[in-house]
Structure formats: structure tokens, C-alpha cells
Amino acid sequence: MTSGRMELVCPAGTPATLRAAVQAGADAVYCGFRDETNARNFPGLNFSGEELAEGVRFAHDHGSKVLVAINTFARVNDVGLWKKAADTAAECGANAIIAADIAVLDHVAKNHKQIRLHLSVQAAAATPEAIRFYADSFGIRRVVLPRVLSVQEIAALNRAIDVETEAFVFGGLCVMIEGRCYLSSYATGKSPNLNGVCSPPEMVSYDDEPNGTAARLSGFTIDRYEPGEPVGYPTLCKGKFKAGGKTSYLFEDPVTLNAGGMIAGLKAAGVTALKIEGRQRGKGYVTEVVRAFRKAVDAVEQGGDAIEIDRILAGQSEGSRQTAGAYSKKWR
Amino acid sequence: MVTISTEPRLPAVVRHLFPAFAGLPLGPLLTLSLRSLAGRQPRLFDRLGEHRTACYFIDPVDLGFAFTVVPDAERSIVRVVRKSEAATSSVQIRGPILTLLSLLDGTLDGDALFFSRIISISGRTEAVLALRNTIEDAELRPADLLGLRGALARLVDTGILGALGVARQMADRNSRREAPEA
How far apart, in whole angstroms, are the C-alpha atoms of residue B151 and residue B131? Predict the structure, then answer.
């Protein structure tokens, strides 16, 4: 069981969102550079070196930490951009670098010993053996857990390892083994894990047609919406397809992870930090979600129950539906 | 199925104050304002990257005219255009004028408005995303667009944002009156 107060780790896609997250009660914010070194490489999003330095100063002045995601995998024979990103993050005074590629982990471990290394969810490390390898080889201090583990499995894992664990509690879900998704790569030629962008927007289109609006990715129809029906961003894993004569969400329903009711359980399982997904989301979303989780975490830390977090966050969920995901596996 | 926007639209009397194709020098004034903003906050336009030369067609559905905007920092151009000129632009963004203004001042979340179909977009999705993220980060106030600072800026912001708030309430009441029974 974790002895200290759990840390609330919140997303920041832009400097304005970083400030909003800090002011809403984030213990730490995570962000990335404006290039393919991080897994949210979307147009107009992310930080320049100068913006990161200002963001770090703002966060530290308000008692929050800044974790920099350099969590995509470097190109063959071209790790320079990733090393430079790590060097800039260290120069800016970031508290930690979140990485998955062993070349990046190795560079940080050897050249920036003062900065903490967190193992990204992109590394998909979910066993004591895998986590110990990263801890022994690179001195990682924390592992961000893949969203495939139950609370009981996390508790068992924490008993077997000596590094901190960070668990996602809210936001989008991936159906594939984290860090190894090829669906978007197949359709678009760009990889979430290498280029940092799932469903690149230059290949997304919304086409109004007589039978509704078609959402397409690289020409593939991912979903079709009736006039007036809420639409979603077309990702293949959450697309609606016809198979066996039946149209359904074949891979994954468009639902949002909400483990707000499991904060006490995660604390008891030894989790150190709770992570909110959504660096691509706006200030309004981040502010509301961070405030709700701040209250919930504080309530749990004071021995009470989490507040009615499901009701508060209902409007922020993809497709207005929520799930506890693998934290409460009912299929095992 | 009929699309019914629940977002506030301008009352008819206000809509009729604007001519179908505005003869006011709105374009040159907004161009000047945007270029002046670029001079004061050049970093703001960096976020747009290659999309600063894209042509955005902004269509306030409750007004009789539209705008095209090329947000290219100190070379920015804003034009008041006819609604029929959408085809020449890279991106088309449509929605009630008060909703579009709320996006600009950050009162409303662009994602939520798009996913709930209150605003619609077509054209180059990546250019829309770049613009949305740029506006999100800019945290623009009316005084920023007017180039004002200090006490006068605060006064103008309070006045304009207050007036917009009243306009939204009026439009909200108007929309409820005009909406058909479900």
C-alpha cells in the first residue's frame, strides 16, 4: 500500500491548458514537444522549448510538477530528435521524462541523472520481470501501467516491484496492447507509436451524404451518423463495421474510462499516481475533470468516499458512456 | 430526422439590422486588428504552423454574410464575403454567431460543439484542428483584438463580454421560442 498522498497527474496539450490544470489542482502535469517525439503529435498542439520552460516555472511556482512525454519510438538510425527532446526537457527543469524507447531511456539515464525516468504506458510493461528489467537497466522510478490490469493484479504487481506505479483513471481507451497498435498505421501509413499520431487529421474527413454524415479515415468509412446525431473522431478501433450480417462496434465501444469510484481501491493496491488522459482536449474539459478528481482524491485521502464523480463527469465521456475497463474484469 | 440546434441564435430583429452582404468596412478593420495582434503576439501564430496560409471560411448561420480568414500573422487577411463563396476556401466552419464568438473567447469548448453538431466543419480537418488548438491557447479577450492595455482593456473586456452575455441570454430565449415541439 502506498504510504504517501496519491499524486494526480493531468494532461496539458498547450501552455494555457497547463496553467488551467495546475490551477484546477493537478499535482503534476504531463506534456510533450511539438514534434513526433510524443504520442499526441497533432497540429497546433504541444510545446516549444521556450513554452516548456515557462510552463515549468509556472507549475513549480504553484507547487506542481511537470512530466515530459518523449514516449514514441525513435526512427531506425535516427534517435537525434528524441535525444534533443530529452536534453531540452532536462534544461527546462522538468521533473521527469516519460519514455518507452530503450535508446531514449538509456540516453536520459546516462546524461541526465538528476531527472526522474518514468516508463511510458507505450512500453506495455505489465509484469514484475519486465518492470525490473527497466528499473535495473535505466533506473526508472515509476511505471505507467497498461490499461489491461485488474485492481487485484495491480496489487500483486506492486508487491513484487520496487518502483512507483501510475494508473489511468479517466479518458480514452485503447483496445490493442499498448504501444503496439497497427490499425491506424495500416490505414494511413502513419504510426501512433512512431509518428505520435493515431488517425492523423489530414486523413480524416466528414462527408455529408444523403443518408447522413460519413466519418472517414484515409477513405475508409469508420462510422455514419444520422443528421443531428453526435459525431465522434474516427479511429479504427472505435469504428462501426458490418460483420456476419450485423453492424456493430467490432473492436471496441466508444466509451470513456472512468475509475473515479476505484480510487480507494487503487490506493489500497499501492498505486502512487492517478493519471487523466486527454492532452488533445481543451481547457474546459481539463479544468472540469481535474477539479472533479481533485475533490475525489482529497476525499479518499481523508478517509471518505469518492464524491459522485460519475455524475459530474457524465458529459465529458466519449459517446456519453463510461466503463471501469479492466480494473474490474468480469470476464475472468 | 430534423436537425434542431439548441444553441442560441440571434433574434430576427437583430438579424435584420445586418444587411445580407455587409457593406460595412468589417473586413479591413478585422484585417488590421489581426495584423496588429500578430505584431504584439507573434508566437500566437506559430502554433498554426503551415496552416497559417490556409483560407478559413467562417459562416455565421444567423447572419446574411460570411468571412474568409487567412491567419498569416502580419500578412493576415479578413474579408466579408457572400455565403456562396465557400468553395474557394480550404476549410468551412459554420455555426450561430454567438457560438462562434464564444469559441474565440474560450467560453465554449470547440470539441464539444463539433461533436454535438452545434457547429459544423468541412474541408481540411488538420487545418481546423490547428486553428482550434491555437485559439484554445491564445485566451483572447476583446481588448487583445483591439490592442488595448491596462485599465481601459479591463473596462472594454467587461463591457463587451457583459454585452455578449446579455446577447446570449436574449438569443437563448429567442431560440427556445422558435424551436418546434419535439
Answer: 30
**For testing the chain B interface, which of A18, A204, A313 should be mutated: the one with the most B CBs within 10 Å?**
A204
Please name the fold of domain B12-178.
Nonspecific Lipid-transfer Protein; Chain A (3.30.1050)
Residue-wise pLDDT for A301-332, tens only, equals: 988 777 777 666 666 665 557 788 888 876 65
Do residues A197 and B126 make contact, with C-beta atoms less than 8 angstroms apart? no
Instruction: List Cβ neighbours of B24 (8 Å cut-off, separation of 6 or more).
Output: B80
The chain B residue lying nearest A200, using CA atoms, is B126
Distance of residue B24 Cα from the nearest chain A Cα, in angstroms: 32
Q: Answer yes or no: are the C-beta atoms of B2 and A227 closer than 8 Å.
A: yes
Name the residue of chain B whose CA is nearest to A283's CA. B136
Distance separating alpha carbons of residues B134 and B34, to the nearest angstrom: 14
**ipTM score of complex:** 0.86
Of B22 and A129, the structure prediction assigns the larger pLDDT to A129
Instruction: Give the count of beta carbons closer than 10 Å to the beta carbon of residue A3.
Output: 6
How is chain B split into domains, by residue range? 12-178
**Which class would CATH give A7-173+255-328?**
alpha beta
In degrees and rounded to multiples of 5, residue A314 shows phi and psi of -55, -40
Pairing of strands B77-81, B120-123: unpaired
